[in-house]
Amino acid sequence: MTATDGDRGTPARHGPLQGVKVIEIAGLGPGPYAAMLLSDMGADVVRVDRPGPVSGRPEVYALARGRRSVAIDMKQPEGLATLLDLVGVADILIEGFRPGVAERLGFGPETCHSRNPRLVYARMTGWGQDGPFSRMAGHDLNYLGLTGALTLLQHSADSPPPSPPGFIADFGGGGLMMAFGIVSALHEAQRSGSGQVIDAAMVDGVASLTTLIYSMTAQGRWNLDRPGTNFCDGGAPYYAIYETADGKYLAVAPIEPQFYATMVDLLGLSLDELPDRDDPAHWDELKELFAGIFRAQPREHWTALFDGTDACVTPVLTFAEARHHPHNLARHTFVEEFGVVQPAPAPRLGATPAAIARPPAIPGAHSREVLLDWGIATERVGTLVDSGVVVESPAREPHSA
């Protein structure tokens, strides 16, 4: 899935965003995820790192795949000037600082747009560029909590909300939303010649993800005050997790009546003999019935029984099991690149497919190469490197310790 070519290992042409130049100011979480998505789709993404010691193993950090890295000391005037020279030929800039920090560092939107009016300037924050919380720190759990989204994961009104791993707000509401905003603004810039600023806030993105819940509430199909009692939040017997005889689990989700009928039939039951599933008063009774049936056999028995049917019953897999499931293997949903198992690029485009352009970069590994490729004169590049304004780091093999 890796695509490289050329003597210097520059990114091969792939994906619909080939030719698009992106500056990613190094950060954490959702910003890098958005940059990864753009890179997978063919954009030439250059991560601007700070010079300094490198901790951990950045060469196997899959979230950083596909990019080249240039290390620039932007505290020096020549370092800032070099960044702004790159801005002058870029299509997109991604930064994830708190409001006002980029301006203080000298590369805020106004400065960048004075150098390049077509630039799409994408700002990733948790709380947004304004509002009472805008300058506060926060994490995924905070954004889920403030939007009400966290209550959707409660099993009941009497149980506390869970603490899910930090990917719903950070990556669904944050990085993915930012990438969508970027390609939308890029389309407008190519049409009109004018760039714009994207205020991508994780709290806004999470709120957007809950649109369906607001819609169903307005229709009288969802009770916000009673989590765990709705048709697809674990309340209904036809949308729940059931344990099997070997201590494993099944995801049982035949919401539609015809799919429910298929499941009931395969379980050897008769719809006519069962309580009405559309009456919540019978849900506990049905749950107990199904739970007893599913606990009678191991997971693989049920997997084989429901395989290829419309019963909407599938195994709950571990990460290791998911990698080897026949469906995921057939679609190459997971790949192993640079010694790391990871999800393959998504979604899949028929004419201009996405690809992993290269392994994650050691900060500064492509400093000279990037500056030359992006139009900085050879003599000036040499001066920047010799003075320490731009730092070159030796590349490490992905499998090295």
Task: Produce a short descriptive summary.
This protein has helices at residues 30-40, 77-87, 101-105, 109-115, 140-147, 168-192, 202-209, 211-218, 257-266, 283-294, 299-306, 319-324, 326-331, 367-373, 378-387; strands at 21-25, 44-49, 68-72, 92-95, 120-125, 196-201, 240-243, 249-252, 313-315, 334-337, 340-343, 390-391.
Characterise the protein shown here.
The protein has 401 residues and is of the alpha/beta class. The chain is 35% helix and 13% strand. It has helices at 30-40, 77-87, 101-105, 109-115, 140-147, 168-192, 202-209, 211-218, 257-266, 283-294, 299-306, 319-324, 326-331, 367-373, 378-387; strands spanning 21-25, 44-49, 68-72, 92-95, 120-125, 196-201, 240-243, 249-252, 313-315, 334-337, 340-343, 390-391. Helix 6 packs across helix 7 (202-209). The longest helix is centred in the middle third of the chain and has 25 residues, at 168-192. The two termini are 23 Å apart. Residues 5-11 have low confidence and may be disordered.
CATH topology (level 3) name of the largest domain: Rossmann fold
Number of helices: 15
Rounded to an integer in angstroms, the radius of gyration calculated over CA atoms is 25 Å
Q: What CATH first level of the largest domain would be assigned?
A: Alpha Beta
- In the sheet with the most strands, the strands line up as 6-5-4-1-2-3-12
The tally of beta strands, per DSSP, is 12
In the CATH hierarchy, what is the superfamily of the largest domain? Crotonobetainyl-coa:carnitine coa-transferase, domain 1
Q: How many separate domains make up the residues?
A: 2
Shape summary = elongated
Q: State the major sheet.
A: 7 strands, mixed
Helix content: 25-40%
Strand-residue proportion? 5-15%
Write the element-wise H/E pattern from the N-terminal end onward.
Answer: EHEEHEHHEHHEHHEEHHHEHHEEHHE
Distance linking N and C termini: 23 Å
Oligomer: single chain
How would you state the average pLDDT, rounded? 94
CATH architecture of the largest domain: 3-Layer(aba) Sandwich
Low-confidence stretches: 5-11
Structural class: alpha/beta
